[in-house]
Amino acid sequence: MTGPGYVTPTVDGVEDFDYLQIGRRVGQGEGSKIQWRPVGGYVEAGITWTWGLEPGTFAFELHPRNPLNDAIRQADIDRHIYQFAASYHGVPFSGRIMKRQQAGKPGSEKFIYSGVCNKKWLQTGYGWVNNFFPPEIQIGLTGKQDIRFGPLDMVAKSYVSSVYTRQGRPVWPGLPIRWPSGWDQPDLADINSLDDLLDMVTDVADSLEIVAMMARFTRLDELFGQAQQQYDAGFSVDLYDGHGTAPSVFRADGISALQGFLDMNGSSFLRLDKLFSSAGQDLIATTANRAGYVFNTQRVRDNTRVQFRTDSQGQIADYDMSVIAPEMTRAIIGGKSPSMVNDLIEIGANLAIAALVAVVASIPGAGGVAGLAGLSVGDLFDDIFFAYQVTADNDLEDELGEDGFMEGFADNTAAYSIDSYAIGKTALKERGGTKELTLNTATGGAGGRGISFGADDGTARRFRLGDKVTLWDRGNVVERHVTAVSVSSKPGALMREAVTLGADKRARGAWTRLIGGVQSGAATMRGFANST
């Protein structure tokens, strides 16, 4: 992403970032690009890359006399968007400045800039029931939720495409779709019951990453959260700056213009001139036509040949292991039982009563009971039957014994529903005791011979986000995947890497694999779960 004339900075022979630069969009619409300029001399800088849905972060402090301070102050971040791009060992980072802090005595202030990576987009998009219609009129083809089912990469990208096509923002799903071999996508209309759905995925391997997601004005990072935890999936939103070869994406600008024609809150509502001005556009295209953002999902990569050792001098400066005791062994899911389940229960209860009346009426001397043949439960069980559900970790419960905390609430609006099992199992994974390890390492080592974060170089000394690596500690060997990497730089000093190795939170089982993408429990409130 460096342009012509941008040098790779070095500081007295000490390793540094490949580049740090900020930029702004020049022009709007087709053909617009990001114009970059180097950050220049800085006091200190740090970047954190993240694997999951939480956006990465960055911060840098500039020298008071750096001309960039005045340039930004004249067109400040409260009214202008400043892109940030960096690279370290060939691994790019892109985001935007979200905060500018200027503090201190006049003439000797500190100028500090901080921001987030472009996964922030996933916190600003919501999956409507129907993204084509305005919010005042929501007509769902799959009921009161927008239900999508299939491989994680396909399902997540379909939501991203729908949401940002509606918004008219250049956020596009990357192509090609990562389609698992051996999977034939069924038609959702052909699935007649939950039993059919469960039977279909019982034998599906974890590697296929099959999910079902239900959106009802759900924020995208919350919508994808369950799948991320179950499959340890990686998510990225990378900036394409409009220079060089355009990436392959799914772009639907023509559809976006048509949607804007029906948006009562937009400036194009029922404006035929706006609609006709876009008539020459293709409804869909497969290449980016301007600077924009490319969404992708990733899988954990086996790179266990990379081994961190606590007995290797200089490799690990220090480490921080966090072990959290279990808070519960049983997750309670529930509140109001969903109407579909209540209808089934009501039908079943009525049939059972009718059968019982028929049996009793057949007993000699009990003919009067036949008069009860019209008896039914009506709406008796609407808010009683199957209102709550419990998912238990029996092995952990036995191991902790009678002193272990037992119950915890996993927020959800519906027990015995399509998503309850997955939410319960994932809650147990999160609050049933976890381990997380952060390694602080001196970058590279002498002559670059140490282990370091970066793009592949053909050796066992480089690792990336999402790589499963090995940690050796006094004879004990564990394998964990890299969930975050923080790199800090201070000119004239060695760079430092903080590598976070996450615990394995994959929730197992056919139901869990199926319901990978339902919004996380944090997306709802216990009050909603118990509402009538």
Automatic annotation (TrEMBL):
Pfam families: Sipho_Gp37. It comes from the Bacteria. Residues 53-502 form the Gp28/Gp37-like domain. InterPro entries: Gp28/Gp37-like_dom. This is Gp28/Gp37-like domain-containing protein. It comes from Gordonia caeni. The lineage of its organism: Bacteria, Bacillati, Actinomycetota, Actinomycetes, Mycobacteriales.
